[in-house]
Amino acid sequence: MIESIKRFVGGENKTRQNKEELLAAIKRAPLPKHVAIITDGNGRWAKKRGLPRTAGHAAGMKRVRETIRAADELGIQVLTFYSFSTENWKRPKDEVDYLMKLPIEFLKTDLQELIDRNVKVQMLGEKSQTPSQTQMALTEFEEKTKHNTGLILNFAINYGSRDEIVRAVRQIIDEVKKGNIDKDEVNEEVISRHLLTRGLPDPDLVIRTSGELRISNFLLWQLAYSELWFTDTLWPDFTPELFYQAIEDFQHRSRRYGAV
Ligand code: FPP
After folding, report:
1. Binding of Mg(2+): at which residues (predicted)?
2. Which CATH number fits the domain that encloses residue 123?
3. How far is Cα 143 from Cα 227, in angstroms, rounded to an integer?
4. What does pTM read for this prediction?
5. Which residue CA neighbors atom 15 of ligand 1 most closely?
6. Most exposed among 15, 119, 158, 225, judged by the fewest C-beta atoms under 10 Å?
C-alpha cells in the first residue's frame, strides 16, 4: 500500500544515488522557499536497537543539525521542524523531560554555529507552558539570532494547529468587537496574519519520515497547497541525501493550485 502511495506522492528517487549529482540537479531548478518536516520514528529506531526511546531522540537531534546545514547551504529560506506537539505531553514523564532538555543541550552545542551561519531561530507554539529552563533556552535562541537575515529556522514546540487556529479566531473576534476591523473584511490574508507563521511563506514542501501518512495537527491552514513527501526511513536515519531527493522530487511536481 505505502509503495503505491509513495509512487503517487513522490517517495524516494532511486535513480540518482550520487550526492554531487543530486545537488547539481537541485541547483538547476527553483527551490522550495519553505520546507517543513515531521521528524517521526525516533522511538521505533531506538526500539529496533534495544535502546531507550530517548536514544532515538538523541540520534534524531544529530539529523536535525545535519538537515539545518543542508538547508542553509542550499539557500532554503525557511525550515520548520515539528519537534513537540501539544499531544506529546501524554508521553511518559522521563521521555517528556528528556525532550524538554533537548533545546537546552542544543543551545550549548549549536547556538554559535547558527549565529555564524546567520540563521534566525523562531518558535511556534506555547513556550510559556514548557519548563522554565527550556523557556530560557528557547528565548536565548530567539534573542541571540533575532537580527540574523539568513535561513529562518522554526521549531514547533508545544504546537498544535487547531489550537493555533482557535487562538487566531479569538483574536480576530476581539478586533471585530473593538471595531478595528469589519466582519466582512475578515479574509484568508487576515487569518494568515493571526497565525504563528505570520509573515512567513506557507510551506512548499512537507516531509514526513517513518512511513506514517498523516499530517498530525501540523500547520493545517498553511499546508493547503503544500506538496507532501513521505519516506519509510526513520528520522534518525534521514540523511542530507534523502533531503535532497525530497527536494528533487518536489521540483518535478506540477503545482496547479486548483487551476489546470
Ligand atoms: C517523533 O518520533 C519525534 C519527536 C516527538 C521528537 C523530535 C525531536 C527532535 C528530533 C529534536 C528536536 C530538537 C530541538 C532543539 C527542539 P517518535 O518518538 O514519535 O517516534 P515513534 O513514532 O517511532 O515512537
Report:
1. 40, 227
2. 3.40.1180.10
3. 32
4. 0.93
5. 103
6. 15
